[in-house]
Design a protein that fits this description.
mainly alpha; Growth Hormone, Chain: A; globular; single chain
C-alpha cells in the first residue's frame, strides 16, 4: 500500500471511528440514563442506585490492567468487535428476560457488571489503537473527535432518555442499545487496526498475563515523564472528587437551586468539553503539551476554589445560576486542555507493545481514587464548611501540580525549550 493510499485509509478510519463512537456512546448513554431512572423508580432508594454504580465502577477498576495487557497481546480488532458483540448479547439476554419475567434489581446489577467489563475492553483497546488507525499528524484530531463524541453523547443521551422515559417501556431503551452497538460493530469491522503498526512481528502471546502486566508497570516506572503524568493524574483525581461530591451538595442543598437548573449546570461541563474538543480537532499539535497540561491544571485548580464564592458572597438566584453555568462550562473547557494533550503524549510517546497496558494502568489508577475520594469528601462535607473544603482542595491541587510538573521536569521533557528561550532573550536584548 502506497503512502497516499494509507493516508486515504486513515481519513476513512478517522470518520468511521468518530461515527461508530458517537453511535455506540449515544446508545449506551440513553440506556444508562434509562436504567438508572428505572432503578430509582423501582426502589426509591439511593442505596440501590449506588449499588448499580458500584457494579459499574469496580469491574473496570479491577480488570483494566488485564484488558490493557490483552490489547497488547492479541488482535485489537478482534477484541473491539468481540467485546461489542458480547455487549449486544448481554443486553439481548436482559431484553429476553424482561419479556419472559419482570425486570428486577439482581438482573440489572448482573447486566451492569458484565456491560462494564465489555465496554471497558472496547474503549481501552480502541484508545490504544488510535496510533495504529490514524497517521501521526492527525492523532490529536482523532483524540479530540473521540472526546467530542463522548461529550455530545453525554449531553444528548440524558436529554433523549428523559424524553423517552415514562413514554416508552424499558424494553425500548434495551433495543436502542442493541441497535446502536450492532451498527458500531458493522462500522468497526471495516477498519484496518494494523494500518500504521510498527510491530510487524504481531502479538506477544508468549508472555504470561501477570508478567505482562508487571512489565507494563516497569515500563511506566522507567519513563520518568510518563510516570510524572500518571502520578499527577492519580493525585489530581482524588482532589477533584471534591467537585463531583461537592457541586450537587452546594448547588442544591446549600444554595437551594432547583434540580432542573442544576441539570443545565452539570450539562455545561459536557458543553465545555465538546467546544474545546472541536477546537483541538482543527488546530495543530501543541509543541510543548506538558506545559499546556500544567497551565490548564493550575487554572482548573483556581476554578475549583471559585465555586465557593456564592457561599461567601450574597448573590441573587439568577446570578447564582448564571455563575455556575459559566463556571462549569469553563471547567469543561479547561479539563479538555488537560486530557487531550495527555492522551496525545501517550499515543505518540509509548511503545506500541506497551500502549494498551499503560492505558489500562492509567484507567485503574484513575478509577481507584474516585470511590476513595467520594468516601473522604462525603464525610468532610457533613462536618466541614464546603467553602473551606473547596479552597483547601484547590490549594492542594496547585501545590501538587507545581511540584509534579516543576521546571526541572519540563526541562527534562523538552531540552530544546530552554535553548529557544535563551535564543529569544538574546535576540530581544540585541
Amino acid at each position: 500500500m502506497t503512502e497516499e493510499q494509507k493516508l486515504q485509509r486513515a481519513t476513512f478510519h478517522l470518520w468511521t471511528f468518530a461515527i461508530s463512537k458517537l453511535i455506540s456512546i449515544f446508545g449506551n448513554s440513553i440506556y444508562t440514563f434509562g436504567i438508572s431512572l428505572f432503578v430509582l423508580t423501582l426502589t426509591g432508594s439511593a442505596t440501590s442506585f449506588a449499588i448499580n454504580l458500584i457494579c459499574s465502577v469496580v469491574p473496570r477498576t479491577l480488570l483494566s490492567p488485564i484488558a490493557g495487557s490483552m490489547a497488547d497481546r492479541y488482535s485489537k480488532k478482534k477484541i473491539v468487535i468481540l467485546s461489542q458483540i458480547f455487549a449486544v448479547l448481554i443486553v439481548s439476554f436482559l431484553l429476553g428476560y424482561s419479556l419472559l419475567f419482570e425486570l428486577n434489581l439482581v438482573a440489572i446489577y448482573i447486566t451492569t457488571a458484565f456491560l462494564s467489563v465489555t465496554t471497558m475492553f472496547t474503549s481501552l483497546t480502541f484508545t490504544s489503537s488510535i496510533a495504529n488507525l490514524i497517521d501521526d499528524t492527525r492523532i490529536q484530531r482523532a483524540m479530540a473527535i473521540n472526546q467530542s463524541a463522548s461529550s455530545a453523547a453525554a449531553i444528548g443521551g440524558p436529554v433523549i432518555g428523559g424524553i423517552l422515559f415514562g413514554v416508552v417501556s424499558m424494553n425500548a431503551f434495551l433495543i436502542i442499545f442493541i441497535v446502536s452497538f450492532s451498527i458500531a460493530v458493522i462500522l468497526e469491522a471495516t477498519m484496518n487496526f494494523k494500518l500504521f503498526t510498527k510491530n510487524e512481528g504481531g502479538e506477544i502471546e508468549h508472555e504470561k498475563m501477570f508478567k505482562s502486566i508487571l512489565s507494563g508497570f516497569h515500563y511506566l516506572r522507567k519513563d520518568h515523564i510518563l510516570w510524572v503524568i500518571v502520578s499527577t493524574a492519580l493525585i489530581i483525581n482524588f482532589f477533584f472528587t471534591s467537585l463531583l461530591v461537592g457541586l450537587p451538595f452546594i448547588v442544591i442543598e446549600e444554595l437551594g437551586i432547583k434540580s432542573q437548573h442544576f441539570g443545565v449546570i452539570e450539562a455545561m461541563i459536557g458543553g465545555g468539553i465538546l467546544l474545546a474538543s472541536l477546537y483541538f480537532s482543527i488546530r495543530k499539535d501543541f509543541k510543548y503539551p506538558l506545559v499546556v497540561v500544567k497551565n490548564a491544571m493550575l487554572l482548573v485548580s483556581l476554578l475549583l476554589s471559585v465555586i465557593a464564592l456564592p457561599l461567601l458572597v450574597n448573590m441573587s438566584y439568577l446570578m447564582m445560576v448564571i455563575f455556575f453555568i459559566s463556571l462549569t462550562f469553563l471547567i469543561g473547557v479547561t479539563l479538555t486542555f488537560v486530557n487531550t494533550p495527555v492522551g496525545v503524549m501517550i499515543q505518540k510517546g509509548v511503545d506500541e507493545n506497551y500502549r494498551g497496558r499503560i492505558f489500562g494502568i492509567l484507567e485503574t489508577m484513575a478509577q481507584a481514587m474516585v470511590p476513595i475520594g467520594m468516601i473522604v469528601y462525603g464525610l468532610l462535607y457533613d462536618y466541614v464548611s464546603p467553602a473551606w473544603i473547596l479552597i483547601a482542595s484547590s490549594a492542594c491541587l496547585i501545590l501538587v501540580t507545581a511540584y509534579m510538573i516543576r521546571p526541572s521536569v519540563l526541562r527534562k521533557a523538552y531540552p530544546s525549550r530552554g535553548d529557544e528561550a535563551i535564543q529569544t532573550k538574546k535576540f530581544v536584548t540585541e
